[in-house]
Design a protein that fits this description.
The protein has about 270 residues and is mainly alpha-helical. The protein contains 10 helices and 5 strands, in the order ααβαβααααβαββαα. Strand 4 and strand 5 form a beta hairpin. The two termini are about 25 Å apart. About 30% of the residues are buried.
């Protein structure tokens, strides 16, 4: 069905107490073209890496044309062009740029089979991956798609295969994943949470343990939108309020390992 994103599909699904269809696929042509372009010609294929997965050159991109397809591609190129060791530059060329009247929506990820399994891992084994995906909110779906598309391409580019990811390779992939994660959040409208706001939310947590100290979805602020080198201090800062011991660097490492393991547990034809 040609429509406006997953929200349209969700309204047509059969749910408890509501008649509908068992499966609805929703797409827009520019979105589909941009997704396929990133999968067939991933940015990482144009970048050199050392044996430890660290980029050895800058990522330079030229986007020619800024119509609907170009607008969709812009967000994907930004997020899929982030690698540890590399600087990123993108130029847009379109002689009609000032006359283009369009609103480009963010669409992330690869075709959804890998994204569904990533969501399933984080949601747990209490029910099927399909059921969990049906109830997955829009932002979470886009987050899973972004991670799936990026890491699937990068792991393939580095020819890692089934071998264990560890040492410098893991560290550089985790750093790249953090750059990708930050780019995704910025392109979804998020901004870095100030130290003052973190302190305020830390005090709020003492009154209400349901508060996420570093994530404010209402105002689209996140404390983790910082360079890799600042993550340890950020983990300590959150721990001072919650008493818990988050390790945000380890979360990036774990996501790399999870996607790698899921990829090579999937049948070849579904990757």
């Amino acid at each position: 069905m040609l429509g406006r994103g997953d929200e349209d599909g969700a309204s047509l699904l059969a749910m408890e107490g509501r008649y509908g269809f068992g499966s609805v696929k929703v797409f827009e042509r520019p979105e589909l073209v941009a997704r396929l372009l990133m999968q067939e010609y991933p940015i990482c294929d144009a970048v050199s890496f050392d044996s430890d997965g660290r980029a050895t050159e800058a990522t330079e991109c030229l986007l020619v044309g800024f119509g609907r397809v170009g607008q969709e591609c812009l967000r994907k190129i930004v997020a899929n062009g982030q690698f540890e060791g590399s600087t990123f530059h993108l130029a847009v060329f379109d002689p009609e740029l000032e006359n283009i009247d369009g609103f480009f929506k963010l669409r992330y990820g690869r075709m959804d089979k890998l994204a569904v399994q990533i969501n399933h891992y984080y949601c747990g084994e209490n029910e099927s991956a399909a059921k969990q995906w049906e109830r997955c909110d829009y932002f979470s779906r886009m987050s899973c798609r972004a991670s799936a598309d990026y890491l699937n391409s990068l792991l393939s580019r580095l020819s890692i295969g089934k071998r264990a990811i560890e040492g410098k390779l893991l560290e550089n992939l985790a750093r790249s994943e953090h750059l990708r994660w930050c780019a995704f959040h910025y392109s979804m409208g998020y901004d870095r949470m100030s130290d003052e706001t973190i302190k305020e939310r830390g005090q709020m947590y003492l009154e209400d343990k349901a508060i996420r100290v570093l994530k404010d979805t209402k105002n689209k602020l996140h404390g983790c939108l910082v360079p890799w080198e600042e993550l340890d201090a950020l983990s300590d800062k959150e721990s001072s309020y919650t008493g818990k011991k988050p390790d945000y660097k380890e979360m990036d490492r774990e996501n790399v390992r999870i996607v790698h393991d899921i990829l090579f547990a999937m049948p070849t034809e579904t990757k």
